[in-house]
């Protein structure tokens, strides 16, 4: 099953190397960095040292400019946002939530925020679920690499460990880029028919994002929804004539 670990605006090179090591010991190697502090972070001395031999993961890792690029092909997003948001996806512990994702046959991405600022609300709103790691209430601070290690371990166990492989028969899911493009199309259409005021959008689009995430759309359903958006825009244009 495709599994990707995405690090957003990482500021410490050593954490990238430690993340690569954490992934390798759990049998994962799809690491993507979004706008890291250091453009050469994958080859910096501190990174390589902290990887402790996981140089193949570093060699395969990619650096991209935007989160959209990092999510190509992904159908289910998990935010590792330890601080609850006032609005957003439901929050689960990894052990409670992972079996259901594994059984659904998704292409999964785990998103980790920057060491200094964590994840932005906008990025969390895009996700299907927020993950919280149970820690001592008096001290819940986890190093980035430690958090990645816990998530990677729990996900590997949900996949059956190293002794089992799952063969899912689930329908293919639309990837995150397709959902994002469809939402942008809907936003334009809702403005065209006068339903959405771009000067005061409130939380309409994040709420629609969450609704469509729960629906677990297929590529065919994305195509249908884009057709609906196109029809709405055409109807709006006729009304304005």
UniProtKB/TrEMBL annotation:
- Specify whether Nucleus is a keyword of the entry: no
Compartment list:
Cytoplasm
Q: Which GO terms describe its cellular component?
A: cytosol
Q: Name one GO biological process term.
A: tRNA nucleoside ribose methylation
Give the family, as the similarity comment puts it.
Answer: Belongs to the class IV-like SAM-binding methyltransferase superfamily. RNA methyltransferase TrmH family.
The free-text function statement in the UniProt record for this protein reads: Catalyzes the formation of 2'O-methylated cytidine (Cm32) or 2'O-methylated uridine (Um32) at position 32 in tRNA.
What protein name does the entry list? tRNA (cytidine/uridine-2'-O-)-methyltransferase TrmJ
List the source organism.
Caenimonas aquaedulcis
Name of the gene? trmJ
């Amino acid at each position: 099953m495709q599994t990707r670990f995405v690090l957003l605006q990482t500021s410490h090179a050593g954490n990238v190397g430690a993340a690569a090591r954490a992934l390798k010991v759990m049998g994962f190697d799809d690491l993507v960095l979004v706008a890291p502090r250091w453009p050469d972070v994958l080859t910096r001395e501190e990174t390589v040292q902290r990887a402790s031999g996981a140089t193949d993961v570093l060699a395969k890792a990619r650096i991209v400019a935007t989160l959209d690029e990092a999510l190509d092909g992904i159908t289910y997003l998990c935010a590792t946002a330890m601080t609850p948001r006032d609005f957003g996806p439901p929050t689960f512990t990894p052990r409670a939530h992972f079996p259901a994702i594994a059984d659904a046959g998704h292409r999964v991405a785990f998103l980790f925020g920057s060491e200094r600022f964590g994840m932005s609300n906008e990025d969390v709103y895009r996700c299907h679920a927020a993950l919280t790691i149970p820690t001592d209430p008096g001290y819940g601070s986890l190093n980035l690499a430690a958090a990645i290690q816990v998530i990677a371990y729990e996900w590997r166990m949900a996949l059956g460990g190293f002794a089992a492989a799952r063969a899912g028969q689930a329908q293919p899911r639309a990837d995150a880029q397709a959902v994002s493009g469809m939402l942008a199309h809907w936003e334009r259409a809702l403005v065209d028919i006068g339903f959405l005021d771009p000067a005061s959008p409130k939380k309409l689009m994040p709420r629609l994002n969450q609704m469509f995430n729960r629906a677990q759309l297929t590529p065919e359903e994305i195509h249908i929804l884009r057709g609906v958006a196109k029809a709405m825009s055409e109807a709006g244009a006729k009304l304005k004539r």
